[in-house]
Amino acid sequence: MSWDFALILFVLLVVTGLVWCLDIFVLRARRRAAAEQAVANAQYSAAGMDAQAAEQLRQEARDKALRPSWWVEYSVSFFPVILFVFVLRSFVVEPFRIPSGSMLPTLEDGDLILVNKFEYGIRLPIIDKKIIDIGSPKRGDVMVFRYPVDPSVDYIKRVVGLPGDEVFYQNKVLSINGKEVAHVRNGDYFEPDRSAYVGRYTEQLGTVSHSILLNKQAPQDFMPISDYPYRNNCQYLVNGVRCKVPPGHYFMMGDNRDNSLDSRYWGFVPDRNIVGRAFFIWMNFGKPSRIGFFH
């Protein structure tokens, strides 16, 4: 969806940019020549008029000849705006809307967020090819990416496994490289999708301390939804899954652990699918108090 908008924006940028260049290097000179001819014709027509009327006639003729066509005027006016939006959205920050509760309690359905587009490297718009390697995702980052099963859809999850990590999730316990990731109970949370309270826990992933939701009593059954790339890197067990993250890929999980369709089901996110790191809620029209940074 965002890819379609980026393509439309790029097409508009190219079209208005071409018209802008055409106007600067060709059309303006033609209009100036036409204006000079129009003034000369008006001068001839103004013979016998008083000075003020003759000057007004010449000015009207000049203004009419210098006025660009409507399509040129609109293109020249909108080109700087489209250029600014395109550069901002492609290389600096991009807005997204949270469509589900898979990242509760960190992000809620309806949150409008900003995504840092340069932290993980500068990528060419549309083709998403990385041209400048600035940094890589870190464990604990909240990341937006194109869904590997359907790249036209944007997903948002938390980075759990880095390239080379062994991720083991069984009986609601997460382990990375053989070390259990501790989580501490921090009260209850009312989950709107299920209209029920669920346990809220604090978890530490790398340097990031964040909240997750867990229902310790709810059953779990992990079965892959497709034969995804590097499927042999994962072993599905009773009440769990163990995966070895391949090079250039990441293992993603939602903070709402019992209600998230993530890497446990569809595999790994390749680096080429990365959009950026989510970091700020700029609006939630139902809950304006949610505006601010998050981890």
UniProtKB/TrEMBL annotation:
It is a single-pass type II membrane protein. InterPro entries: LexA/Signal_pep-like_sf, Pept_S26A_signal_pept_1, Pept_S26A_signal_pept_1_CS, Pept_S26A_signal_pept_1_Lys-AS, Pept_S26A_signal_pept_1_Ser-AS, Peptidase_S26. PROSITE patterns: SPASE_I_1, SPASE_I_2, SPASE_I_3. The active site is at S102, K157. CDD domains: S26_SPase_I. It is found in: Membrane. Coiled coil: none annotated. It is an enzyme of class 3 (hydrolase). Its EC number is 3.4.21.89. Keywords: Hydrolase, Membrane, Protease, Transmembrane, Transmembrane helix. This is Signal peptidase I. The lineage of its organism: Bacteria, Pseudomonadati, Pseudomonadota, Betaproteobacteria, Burkholderiales.
